[in-house]
Amino acid sequence: xxxxxxxxxxxxxxxxxxxxxxxxxxxxxxxxxxxxxxxxxxxxxxxxxxxxxxxxxxxxxxxxxxxxxxxxxxxxxxxxxxxxxxxxxxxxxxxxxxxxxxxxxxxxxxxxxxxxxxxxxxxxxxxxxxxxxxxxxxxxxxxxxxxxxxxxxxxxxxxxxxxxxxxxxxxxxxxxxxxxxxxxxxxxxxxxxxxxxxxxxxxxxxxxxxxxxxxxxxxxxxxxxxxxxxxxxxxxxxxxxxxxxxxxxxxxxxxxxxxxxxxxxxxxxxxxxxxxxxxxxxxxxxxxxxxxxxxxxxxxxxxxxxxxxxxxxxxxxxxxxxxxxxxxxxxxxxxxxxxxxxxxxxxxxxxxxxxxxxxxxxxxxxxxxxxx
Length: 372
Prior knowledge:
The chain is mainly alpha-helical.
């Protein structure tokens, strides 16, 4: 059975044959950060950004390469992350002035930077935002929090649930007793608006609703709480994989990630279907430069607004934060997801993630020949 599962995963692993030279090429030795895409380097003022750097580091961690990182590079990365923090507010921000107005990007950057610094044995230079300082006004009380939750527009489940889910960052900063009060408000609200037939949240296509459910699962997982109506969610994901077209790497990752979090026993036939369909979907997003692209037609230049597709509408969308020229190329957003999908498929198959690529040994020398 193990050999059969390994053979099933081989076509997926062939997609990573030329991946690591691409990844090494996105590192910027001067700043200590990683670029979003190859075309990011060719535009003035497009610099390595927080999210792409965090995603690249996640890739290195998942393949157990971060332990081999040269000390010089590690210090550069630490400095890159620490210097992104604003001394007055505690937020981590890129130079792009539009980022500060995207609540999802801002909240996510707190987690990206503080968690990675902690793993490196370091701390942020300044205190993080808290309820009594520069946290959002909706955190002033459980009443304002409930009002904020109930006013989030869920016509696009993916975007709406992303907004709901990132509030977990601020709940995590509260004392245990206070946090529980906020948690109770959130969990009661989420249960109330969940579709009992599908187990999904919000509106949109099946992949959009699954992606929204994935975004909301990040709230539950932050506090180690199982999702309600797990069996219904499982059935919805399997039906979607077999009937819908995945046009975004997020659709592929979100489905697999949710299946893993549901932690339900998966019949062999379902497992094989999931891995085969997932591999075929990933092939469509593999690019000649070695990376993976978020979307089929091209790599979105501003991933912060890529949840709402052309022809769809969501109110009060933030201004696009452009990270590249949006060419037909690999990007860090999709590539970190491809790696996570790879790892999660091992977990779904109940296999140890023992993947080793020939480029592992030489990865850091691809960045700097002196790092052997």
